[in-house]
Every structure is written in C-alpha cells, then in structure tokens.
Amino acid sequence: MSASGRKQVTSNAQIVKTVRAPDMTYKVEEPIGEIFLRMREISEKVKTLKPHPMYLSKRVRRIDNLSYIADCLQSDNQTIHHAVHLMDVYSSKMQRDREYDTILISLCCLLISTKFL
User: Fold this and answer.
1) Structure confidence at residue 88 (pLDDT)
2) How far apart, in Å, do the first and last CA atoms of the chain sit?
3) How far apart are CA 82 and CA 68, in angstroms?
4) Is the per-residue pLDDT at 49 higher than 60?
5) CA–CA separation, 9 vs 80, rounded Å?
6) C-alpha to C-alpha distance for 79 and 66, rounded to whole angstroms
C-alpha cells in the first residue's frame, strides 16, 4: 500500500508496495503553474463537449476495453487518452435521435490514435 493507503497495480496485475520517505523530494521538469494552466485549458475544452447520452452510459466499459486492448498491443497511455478524447468528440457530434455501435467506434478511435501517435 502507498502512503495514501491505496494499492498500486502494475500492468501485469502484481501488487506493488510503495512507501514515500518523508525527506524525499520529487523533481518536476515543468513549473507547476504551467501544468495547472494547461489542465485548466483542457478542462474548459472538455466542458464544451456534450456526448450522446447512450455513449455516456457505456463510456466506462469502453475505456476498460480500450485499456485492455492497448495493453495487449503494448501501447502507451497517451494513445489510450487520445482514443478516449476522439470517442468523446465523435459522440458529441452524433445525432441525438440515433443509436450507434460504441464498440466499433472505440476500436476505430484506438486504431486512429495508434497510427497518429
């Protein structure tokens, strides 16, 4: 368990125990202010998206599926995040009165992200 009391799980499902020493400091390459500013800008962009309600009900399962597939393909986390962002954007552009196949769309987004990044 970590100092916060949570178990950390690695990609091969092994539990790793971590303890942070009280005198240990971590170096961050970018200033914290710039990181927070970039996070705020991204969150403002995400607020403008209004995904399809059907997609929102299945979003967690699709992200789990994408994570599993990307893990099998040995893709990095940035690819998964990009694929989820593409799914959100696509879903916000869809007509509200239609249903669509979220599995197919999630796989297409993963393919695009894998090729793009």
Assistant:
1) 87
2) 33
3) 15
4) yes
5) 18
6) 10
C-alpha 27/C-alpha 3 separation (Å) is: 19
Query: Does pTM top 0.70 for this prediction?
Result: no
Among 116, 86, 114, 115, residue whose Cα is nearest residue 102: 86
Q: What residue ranges do the domains of the chain occupy?
A: 51-116
Is the pLDDT at 103 greater than 50? The verdict is yes
- Is the pLDDT at 8 greater than 70? The verdict is no
Assign 3-class secondary structure to the chain: CCCCCCCEECCCCCEECCCCCCCCCCCCCCCHHHHHHHHHHHHHHHHCCCCCHHHHHHHHHHHHHHHHHHHHCCCCHHHHHHHHHHHHHHHHHCCCCCCCCHHHHHHHHHHHHHHHC
Mean pLDDT of 16-25: 55
Q: Are 16 and 8 in contact (CB under 8 A)?
A: yes
